[in-house]
Every structure is written in C-alpha cells, then in structure tokens.
Design goal:
The complex is a heterodimer of chains A (271) and B (259).
Chain A: E1 2-6, H1 13-25, E2 30-33, H2 44-53, H3 62-69, H4 81-97, H5 100-108, E3 112-115, E4 118-121, H6 138-147, E5 152-155, E6 162-166, E7 169-175, E8 184-190, E9 193-197, E10 211-217, E11 222-228, H7 232-242, H8 246-253
Parallel strand pairs in A: 1-2, 4-5, 5-9
Antiparallel strand pairs in A: 1-10, 3-4, 6-9, 7-8, 10-11
Chain B: E1 3-9, H1 15-26, E2 30-35, H2 49-59, E3 64-65, E4 81-87, H3 102-111, E5 117-120, E6 139-144, H4 152-163, E7 169-178, E8 184-190, E9 197-200, E10 216-222, H5 226-236, H6 240-258
Parallel strand pairs in B: 1-4, 1-5, 2-3, 2-4
Antiparallel strand pairs in B: 6-10, 7-8, 7-10, 8-9
Helix pairs in contact in B: 4-5
Classes of the chains: A alpha/beta (271), B alpha/beta (259).
C-alpha cells in the first residue's frame, strides 16, 4: 500500500492544497503529517482547519509546541540573532491569530506516531527540535532509529527531503567486572535502518521553491520524493497583506527558507 | 619628482583597488585623498571616502592621508605619488587634463594639488573597463555605524539578502563593519561581479567596550527600501549585554592561552 508523508506546512495554504491535490490524484488515502502546521506563513487557522477536516494523523512539530507553550519553547536553535528576532515576530503574529480551538488542537497532537516498524516524528525521536540532517554522524543517526525501536524513521524539520540507508551497522560492547572477573566483548549486528525526511510543504529548503513530500510503498519499500508547484505568488501576497515581515515573502519566492538551519545539526534543546 | 594622479570613474568601477595596486607597484611614499564628486540629475553620489581610506591605510600603513592638513608632508622634489580618487558618473568630454570637471579644479587648487595625470574609467585605456557601468539612475544610502557591532551570522544573512535584491536593486555596496571579536570586516560588492569581496582588516581593536573606529555602510542602486534596510540592520546589531558576554568570553580564552 502506498502512503504519503507530509511535513512542515508552515501556514502556507496554497502549498498544502496543491500537495493534497497531488496526493489525491494518485489515489493515495493514507497520509501522515509530521507537524509544523503553523509558523512564518499567513494561513495558520486555514491550514489547521484543513488538516482537521481531512483527519490527517499528525505529529506535533516544534512550532506547534511553541505556540502552545508560550514564547518559544526553544530559542537556542536559531542560527542568528536576525533569525531569532524574525522568528519571534512570526511567533507573536501566529499566536495572536490562532484560535483557541486550534491551539487546543495543536496542544493535543502526539510527539510521535507508530505504525508497526514505522515511526513518524517531527525532528527526531528525542525532540521536535533536533535536526536529523542528511550528513549527520552515521552512528548518531543509527542510534536515533535503533533506540526508537523502528526500522524506518520518518522525520521532517530540516526541510531537506532525503532518504538515508544505514546498513551494516554494529555496536561493540566491552563488559568489565563480569561475574567470572574477565573482560567480555560483544558485538551486536544491526539490520538495515532507514531515515526518510519528507522535506517541507510550506517552506522548501532544497534549492527550489516547489513544495516537497514523500510517497512510501510498504510492499516494495520504495520511496519517491515528490516536488509540487503551487501558487507561490498567492502566499507571498498574503504574507504582505497579513502584516508579516515582507522579507518572508522575498525569501519564500526565491526558494530560501524563512530562517536558516542551526549550525549544530545535532542540537537538542535541554529546556 | 612628485606625481599627482587624478583617478575618476562611476561607482564600483574599481578606482580604489586600482589605486591600491599602483601604490604597491610604486613602493615609495604615497598620499591619498578622495573627493566625493557631484550628484547629477537622478544620479546620487554616496559618501564612502572614509571606507576607502581606512581600507587603503590598512593595506598600506605608511599611506599618508591628504584630507588632513597636518599630513601634507610632501615636497615637490621627492618621488612620492599622490592619488586623488574622484567619483564621477559621466565621461569627460575632453581627453587628458583638459577633461577635469571645472568644479573639481577649484577644490584641487584649495588643496594645492594640481594633477600631472588624469585618468577616467571608461575613457582611458590604461584603466580596466570590465566593471565600469553606465548608470542612468542611482539612489544612495550612507550609514554611519560607528560603535555598532554586528552579530556575525546575522551580518552574513543581511549581506546575502542585500546583494540579492531583497531591499531593492542594489548596484553597489561596500562597508566596514565591526564584529564582536574586535575585527573589522571590509565588504565590497558590485553588480557586475559574481560574488562579494570580504576582507578582514589587519588592524584588530582590543575587544573591550564599543569600537570607536570608522564603520560605515554605503549602498547604491534603484528603488532602495531605506526603511527596511535600516530596520533589518537594527535586528542584526548586538546590545551591550551581549557584547559584554562575547568580550568576557574572549578575555577568558586569551587568559587561558597565556597560562
């Protein structure tokens, strides 16, 4: 059965509509959303309403958590003072615009969704705020998947779609002070694990301005990363009309993310 | 025998860099002054004289600043070379010294600097032409940023947005900007070149308090959104407590390195 995974919608209604239409045209019924329904974009309520209306199972993203938990639950992932201050402007605007009903909905979202050996999260199994970048240390990446008990981990947050296969993994352990007072060494071979990043519907960061998502076929294990055009001018116009910083429209229109990635990809918020 | 050269050209044509290479070639005593030139109809001059001099002085520490009367140390007999840089949009209608703008001649007389050579970018083949653009309309923004210190990653983002058109069509941008570790960064960009020139000045201020040296940003282009530019800059500048934190951290590192 084919299923679609979408992530990082960022209140960009034209992009979400275009992606859902694209999925519908392929006859795919199972859709999972990895969160960040809101943040930066001009349509927070409209996007939340659409996800509720379509009854799409959704994980809580870092922005979804932040607008519920008060002023950013995690500021430390901002890569610059400029990004942080712009993020705060977007946060304040979004918090003011979101209805209480939609805030309650975002608060009710789970941090992960598990289906057999598939695990769906926003950032990583550890945190909605942790980036699993495609080039992160292989051992750390494998640890994230293995410790979560999943064979395939679906994540978003980085806005970079990718498929990473972690094969021939092993963990070597040295045991000291064993009952027979001898040092014992054990090696555990791990089966193939995969990390699949769905990219971003509402704020692409893959070098282009098209929305991205993935289709997973659980019979063949095939992954297809999709790019979808949408009416980007409509979103940009709405950003400006909404009174959000107009630089967001310029950045989106040029295929640049609203705020850049943190330098430390393995950053985990300790708050 | 002392030589006085007048070098003019439109913004971004490479006047300062050409003068720098000539000073290096000459090797002897050199003086420099920049005349701001005149705005013409729909062509607005920017005041970047301090950026150019600070940059040249950093590269050539013995360079004499002729904008200060006390630094007029040349005699007519030595083999020094004096460079007068002039921003000028139009090509002189006569060749050689006869092409000097009459409005400039009186300034030169006041400075007691009468040119022996006059070269204009776009007129004289001795000068490179690849970055010499013919502007029909140009707006200018000059910002004094003395005592201001930038958050480095924010500066990186701002400069990227600026030269890629987020705040209007920028043709020319240059700056001397302070970062928290005491360095001053020279930024230089022209629309005809694919990338920006970034250079760390050799002169590093001790990271203590707010830097007192020259810091400026000059932007020239069309449809420039001055308010948005200033607003973004304000989001990039660090406050006193953040600056103190950076400087305390640097002091601790230096202390640890000396023990």
């Amino acid at each position: 059965m084919k299923q679609a995974v979408i992530s990082c919608l960022h209140a960009n209604l034209p992009a979400v509509q275009a992606v859902l239409n694209h999925i519908d045209r392929q006859g795919i019924d199972t859709i999972t959303c990895l969160g960040d329904l809101v943040g930066y974009g001009p349509h927070p309520n409209e996007v939340v309403d659409l996800i509720k209306e379509r009854e799409i199972p959704t994980c809580q993203g870092c922005w979804d958590e932040d607008v519920v938990d008060g002023l950013d639950a995690c500021d430390c992932s901002y890569p610059s003072q400029l990004a942080e201050r712009r993020g705060h402007l977007a946060h304040k605007w979004t918090t003011e615009k979101l209805t209480n009903e939609n805030k309650d909905f975002l608060a009710s979202l789970p941090t992960s969704i598990r289906r057999d050996k598939l695990l769906f999260v926003h950032g990583s199994p550890n945190s909605q705020h942790e980036y699993l970048l495609p080039d992160m240390d292989a051992f750390a990446a494998l640890e994230r998947v293995e410790m979560s008990g999943a064979e395939t981990l679906f994540c978003g947050h980085t806005h970079l779609p990718y498929v990473r296969e972690l094969g021939q993994g092993s963990i070597r352990i040295t045991l000291k002070n064993t009952p027979n007072k001898q040092t014992e060494e054990k090696e555990i071979n791990l089966p193939m694990r995969r990390i699949i990043n769905a990219g971003s519907v509402g704020e692409p960061r893959h070098g282009g301005s098209k929305a991205t998502y993935v289709i997973f076929d659980d019979k063949t294990n095939n992954i297809d990363i999709k790019e979808v055009s949408y009416d980007i001018d409509r979103t940009c116009k709405a950003i400006i009309e909404a009174g959000l910083p107009s630089i967001f429209a310029w950045r989106l229109n040029h295929g640049f993310e609203f705020a850049e990635l943190a330098e430390d990809a393995s950053h985990v918020c300790e708050r | 025998m002392r030589q006085v050269w007048l070098i003019s050209g439109p913004p971004g044509c490479g006047k300062t860099n050409w003068i720098l290479s000539e000073i290096k070639k000459h090797g002897g005593s050199c003086g420099y002054i920049r005349l701001s030139g005149f705005s013409e109809k729909s062509l607005e001059q920017a005041n970047s004289s301090e950026i150019d001099f600070v940059f040249l002085k950093d590269q050539i520490p013995q360079l004499i600043d002729l904008s200060k009367p006390s630094d007029h140390l040349f005699s007519d007999q030595d083999d020094s070379v004096i460079f007068i840089e002039l921003s000028q949009f139009y090509i002189p209608n006569q060749s050689g010294l006869a092409g000097i703008d009459p409005r400039i001649i009186s300034q030169l007389e006041n400075l007691k600097l009468l040119p022996d050579q006059y070269l204009h970018f776009g007129r004289d083949t001795e000068l490179p032409i690849k970055d010499t653009l013919d502007f029909t309309k140009i707006e200018s923004l000059s910002l004094n940023l003395q005592e201001n210190v930038w958050d480095p990653p924010s500066l990186n983002t701002f400069w990227f947005e600026l030269v890629n058109g987020a705040y209007g069509d920028v043709y020319r941008a240059k700056a001397l900007l302070n970062i928290p570790d005491g360095r001053s960064m020279y930024f230089n960009w022209i629309v005809s070149q694919p990338g920006s020139q970034f250079l760390q000045l050799n002169d590093i201020s001790p990271p203590k308090g707010r830097p007192q040296r020259i810091s400026q940003l000059v932007i020239q282009g069309r449809n420039l959104e001055f308010t948005r530019i200033k607003s973004t800059i304000n989001l990039c500048l660090i406050n006193d407590s953040v600056l103190e934190m950076h400087q305390a951290s640097l002091s601790n590192q230096q202390l640890a390195a000396t023990h």
